[in-house]
Design brief:
Layout (H helix, E strand, L loop, with lengths): L13 E3 L3 E2 L2 H11 L4 H4 L1 H5 L10 H10 L8 E12 L8 E14 L3 E12 L4 E12 L5 H10 L1
Antiparallel strand pairs: 1-4, 2-4, 3-6, 4-5, 5-6
Protein name: Dehydratase
Pfam family, one: MaoC_dehydratas
Organism: Candidimonas nitroreducens
Amino acid sequence: MLDMPYGELKLGQQRVSHGRTITETDVVNFCMLTGNWLELHANAEFAKKTLYGQRLVQGGLIFVIVNALLGFEHSLIEAFYGVDKLRFIKPTFINDTLYAHTEIIGLRDKGEQHGVATLLLRGVNQRDETVLSCEFSLLVRRIPLQDKQVHTLREAT
């Protein structure tokens, strides 16, 4: 969703991503990857007796999926620069569909070749509820990498 060089970005620019439905497979794979087998995520019978009456999707998984929905342009993004004020506002459940809503809230120069763009990033579900909110910063190039440079980077990863 950041598809312009740093110098072309403007405060207040907003975007909404395509949707992504969270599946049972996502939750189980994240349990396997992280070792987070907390019963609230992994045990349906246990989760029935909790505040929400069903399993919750792990906050870490929600953060990773929502920021990935931004759709990074490889020729422009140099690096993830940080996250601040991360909050999980509402629970996310298996089969919820999430969208990334962004607004550019900060721009600052970072040397001659880059700038830091800070986005208000919100994860919003199909019920139009904000489930996640944070300030998400990226190091953005002023001049995109050329096609040959991008292909070299993709081959290296």
